[in-house]
Write a structure and sequence with these properties.
The C terminus is likely disordered. The chain starts with a helix and ends in a 16-residue tail after the last helix. The chain is globular. It is built from 27 helices and 16 strands. By secondary structure, the chain is of the alpha+beta class. Strands 1-2-3-4-5 form a 5-stranded antiparallel β-sheet.
């Protein structure tokens, strides 16, 4: 069903329809171009191909189709992009149980009504207003983040929200499903989950309220400082980052995400101009969170508390982010202070601290050195606690750099650090192999075979595009010969690679068509057809070679003769596939027009 939906959406929406609201496009030959929406560039380097339904950004070296564009711009996954584009195209997705849809819509409605209730009550509660003012939150920020107040003891009752929402015809069961009330003991009435708390609505990626985090207003030694919504059908805490819906564009344009711990830290950072800030509070950072952030930028700066929990959060983030190839830095936070406190005191001070953030490897070295005055203990701890993070870095150049940094800090040789790091690399490989229940292997693909596969892949990509870029009179001959070589039709060739994998190739080939003499282009095409046929022939030949070796080992004469016969027939097939300019109706001349 998803495939049908994708096809219908692409039939109804052109790539220009989708991209034009985000990017001012101008004609550039048969393509369109504009300034990249992913950077703050001044010279247009963003190209759109209406014919192929794809885009490519030369400044960031990324491209794709309408689905990848919406994923990048809105920070959603494919399902999210499918939903957005289906709505825009008027395409109905997989039919949903009307009852289930109604229940979910009622949850959205009840959470929206609850948010309005909290916002209205904040105006009535002078203590709540004063608290927010004392924390330095401006009225504009309060309105932007829809911060409210949940009434409760000592000055209010236990069921203020429940009574108000039931008066709006919501049932107790609906309030329980939305995580707004708690069930009481048998025979007793359910009561409000949030009481006497400053309320921070938590929004999903599309900006809908799905949950809350409530901070206690009146000091109570027994009540927890923060209470968060339970997980519901709408709220999965491992998939949502507080502030992400408002930080998407900021992360993209500033090219890094600023990760803090609490809601106040997020709203104050945005107020201070850091519109790229999200919070990882309420749950440990997950791989899904990292995936959401990495879609927008490959760089992260962590500004977490300097206490033990904050250091543990830094390590968790380093574990997930470094292994995905992200560049991770850490702000050295003063003991007992968080970003919100520093921003209220002096926003420029916080800006300077972010500017001085150090790479997570160096930060963890600093922390370890502060905790271990004994030099030998420091070195041993560094091996056990720091080198595993270096081993997670997939970029070999980066890995080598930090091996040198650690060697300098420990007063040892780079070779010694490299040897120890490799032990952690091998250990990680062994563990990964165990998880998939396969024996560990150190054998790598022979270089020659790798190069063969890469070149074959490159040629197939070129031909998947050339069948649409060559002058129309030459396409039938190309398509017919490609089918002989690859066994694939023109449509199968077009569908070999998604737009995300062909990069800027369509635009470069289109430019070649306008700059080079047609005979030169066609001569190159003929040579590449021969090369592709040879590469594919070698793959077929390997099958016969293996059969021949097996027959020789088993001394099976009949099998040997069959394999040799196959090799001879393959050689004839290959000879018949060799072409020159005559394929396109030209004499095979060495001198091009």
């Amino acid at each position: 069903m998803a495939g049908d939906s994708v096809r219908q959406i692409k039939e109804r929406l052109s790539v220009v329809d989708v991209i034009a609201p985000y990017v001012e496009l101008h004609p550039a030959g048969k393509n369109m171009k504009g300034k990249s929406p992913f950077t703050n560039e001044k010279t247009p380097s963003f190209y759109v191909s209406p014919d192929r339904g794809m885009y490519y950004c030369f400044s960031t070296s990324q491209g794709g189709d309408i689905f990848t564009f919406v994923q990048e711009m809105e920070g959603v996954d494919f399902k999210g992009a499918l939903k957005i584009l289906a709505e825009k195209a008027g395409v109905e997705l997989v039919p949903e149980d009307p009852k289930k849809r109604t229940e979910r819509e009622r949850q959205y409605d009840v959470l929206e009504q609850a948010t309005k209730f909290f916002e209205e009550y904040r105006h009535k509660k002078a203590d709540a207003q004063k608290y927010l003012e004392d924390r330095g939150v401006t009225p504009q920020t309060i309105a932007k983040w829809r911060i409210g107040y949940a009434p409760g003891p000592p000055q209010h009752g236990w069921r203020e929200l429940k009574n108000a929402l039931e008066a709006e015809k919501f049932t107790t069961q609906e309030l329980l499903k939305a995580g707004l009330v708690k069930a009481a003991d048998a025979g007793k009435e359910a009561y409000d989950l949030f009481r006497d708390r400053i309320m921070f609505p938590i929004f999903d990626n599309a900006g809908h309220v799905v949950a809350y985090s409530g901070r206690i207003l009146t000091k109570d030694s027994e009540a927890p400082k923060y209470v968060n919504s339970p997980e519901t059908e709408l709220f999965n805490k491992s998939e949502i980052l507080y502030g992400y819906d408002k930080a998407k564009q900021g992360i993209r344009t500033m090219d890094f995400c600023l990760c803090v711990e609490g809601q106040f830290d997020v709203v104050m950072a945005h107020q201070a101009g850091y519109g790229n800030t999200v919070a990882i509070s309420g749950t440990a950072l997950t791989a899904h969170h990292v995936m959401l952030l990495q879609r927008l930028s490959n760089r992260a700066v962590l500004a977490l508390d300097a206490d033990r929990a904050g250091i543990a959060a830094v390590k968790k983030a380093a574990d997930l982010m470094l292994s995905r190839g992200m560049d991770v830095k850490v702000v050295h936070m003063p003991d007992g202070e968080d970003p919100a406190d520093i921003i209220v005191r002096d926003p420029h001070e916080f800006k300077a601290m972010v500017g001085k953030a150090s790479h997570v490897i160096e930060f963890l070295l600093d922390v370890l050195q502060e905790q271990n005055e004994d030099e030998r203990a420091f070195k041993l701890k560094a091996r056990e606690e720091i080198l595993p993070y270096v081993a997670r870095i997939p970029n070999r150049i980066d890995q080598e750099h930090f091996e040198g940094v650690i060697a300098d800090r420990l007063g040892t040789t780079k070779d010694a650090i490299h040897t120890e790091t490799q032990r952690f690399v091998e250990k990680a490989q062994e563990e990964a192999a165990k998880q998939i229940e396969q024996p560990v292997t150190t054998a790598s693909t022979p270089k020659q075979t790798q190069e063969h596969m890469q070149r074959k892949d490159a040629l197939l990509k070129r031909f998947s595009i050339l069948i649409d870029e060559l002058p129309k009179e030459h396409v039938p001959a190309l398509v017919e010969h490609l089918q002989k070589v690859t066994g694939k039709s023109a449509q199968e060739m077009r569908e070999l690679y998604p737009a995300t994998e062909v990069g800027d190739l369509p635009f470069r080939l289109a430019e070649d068509m306008t700059k080079l003499p047609i005979k030169q282009v066609l001569n190159d095409v003929a040579l590449e057809l021969n090369e592709l046929a040879e590469l594919l022939g070698k793959e077929k030949r390997r099958v016969f070679d293996e059969k021949l070796r097996a027959a020789e080992v088993s001394k099976d004469d009949a099998q040997q003769m069959e394999a040799l016969k196959g090799i001879a027939e393959l050689r004839k097939e290959q000879d018949a596939l060799v072409v020159d300019l005559k394929l396109f109706g030209y004499e095979d001349e060495r001198k091009m027009d």
